């Protein structure tokens, strides 16, 4: 179903929700009300009718804006939508305060069921990669292909650079960090985030940096910003400790969809060494290694990621039309 056509169950809940949130040329935002959650959805009008749907899920502290560059490159190939997970971007917190990986996965599933868009080409980065893995494992009917960029799957020995993010999960730490950094301005915070997430922060354009600072200022003004960060971080750490059929690696083994894995050699949050384990765990996987990329390859090297996704579609027989063949090239 095209993102411009909505089921009756959603049509009455859709209202403009742009505000001060950045919307790239050709994009639009809408707010979708579902039981217990309200989700902001970023989309691009499909280049033509009949394109297969795609859904993008961001990482911890991110938003649907993280996918804008890739969505643009995939115009003509898929009908793109990106979610702001509950409590992030422009989506308010969930009514039940559930920021677990399962809670976020339930929000994605709830949206796909209500929008009648499945099966979709599902993308996930970092926390969104863990969420997308869970969705693909428990609802294979909703996922056509799976593309995971630095997915946050359990590591026995996490990199030291990832420890501060994990520490946010400890009760009281977010509040303490807020007090200790109360004099930091948005520009300082953005520089820190980019140094952590990019293989080469110098790749960020001045315009991109200004946009990020503006978005950081907006988010810091939200009363639930740090609570959403802390609870989602805690939810991710808790997911790492689950065993049996609910463990993320066990669920990765259950994924039936053809899977593209993207790992960065300079990733400071998800260890590059995990790429081989992931390639073994997902039964129908192919691996794209980017030695110079950090944690957000879809923002650092969107053309390369788009090309790899196009190859995935060609390999799985999903790329059938002449218009789609040239998309993203």
From TrEMBL:
What is an example of a Pfam family matching this protein?
Abhydrolase_1
Q: Does the keyword Hydrolase apply?
A: yes
Which source organism?
Streptomyces olivochromogenes
Where in this chain does the entry annotate a coiled-coil region?
none
State what protein this is by name: Alpha/beta hydrolase
Name the UniProt key words of this record, in alphabetical order: Hydrolase
- GO molecular function, a single term: monoacylglycerol lipase activity
Q: Domain of life here?
A: Bacteria
Q: Which GO terms describe its biological process?
A: acylglycerol catabolic process
> What positions does the domain AB hydrolase-1 occupy?
55-300
**Gene Ontology CC terms:** membrane
InterPro entries annotated for this entry? AB_hydrolase_1, AB_hydrolase_fold, AB_hydrolase_sf
């Amino acid at each position: 179903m095209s993102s411009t056509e909505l089921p009756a169950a959603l049509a009455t809940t859709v209202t403009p929700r742009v505000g001060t949130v950045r919307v790239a040329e050709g994009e639009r935002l809408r707010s979708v009300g579902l039981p217990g959650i309200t989700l902001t959805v970023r989309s691009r009008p499909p280049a033509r009718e009949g394109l297969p749907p795609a859904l993008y899920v961001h990482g911890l502290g991110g938003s649907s804006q993280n996918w804008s560059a890739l969505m643009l490159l995939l115009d003509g190939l898929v009908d793109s939508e990106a979610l702001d997970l509950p409590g992030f971007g422009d989506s308010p917190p969930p009514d039940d305060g559930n920021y677990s990986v399962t809670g976020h996965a339930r929000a994605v599933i709830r949206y796909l069921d209500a929008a009648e868009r499945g099966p979709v080409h599902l993308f996930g980065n970092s926390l969104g990669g863990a969420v997308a893995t869970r969705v693909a494992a428990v609802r294979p009917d909703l996922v056509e292909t799976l593309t995971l960029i630095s997915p946050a799957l359990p590591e026995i020995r996490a990199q030291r650079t990832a420890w501060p993010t994990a520490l946010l999960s400890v009760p009281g730490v977010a509040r303490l960090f807020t007090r200790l950094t109360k004099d930091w301005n948005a520009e300082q915070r953005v520089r820190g985030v980019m140094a952590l997430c990019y293989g080469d922060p110098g790749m960020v354009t001045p315009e991109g940096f200004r946009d990020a600072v503006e978005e950081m200022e907006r988010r810091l003004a939200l009363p639930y910003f740090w609570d959403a960060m802390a609870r989602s971080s805690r939810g991710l750490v808790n997911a790492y400790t689950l065993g049996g059929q609910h463990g993320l690696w066990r669920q990765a083994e259950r994924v039936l969809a053809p899977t593209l894995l993207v790992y960065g050699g300079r990733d400071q949050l998800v260890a590059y060494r995990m790429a081989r384990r992931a390639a073994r765990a997902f039964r129908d996987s192919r691996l794209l290694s980017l030695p110079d990329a950090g944690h957000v390859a879809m923002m650092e090297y969107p053309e390369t990621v788009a090309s790899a996704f196009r190859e995935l579609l060609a390999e799985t027989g999903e790329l059938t039309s002449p218009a789609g063949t040239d998309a993203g090239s």
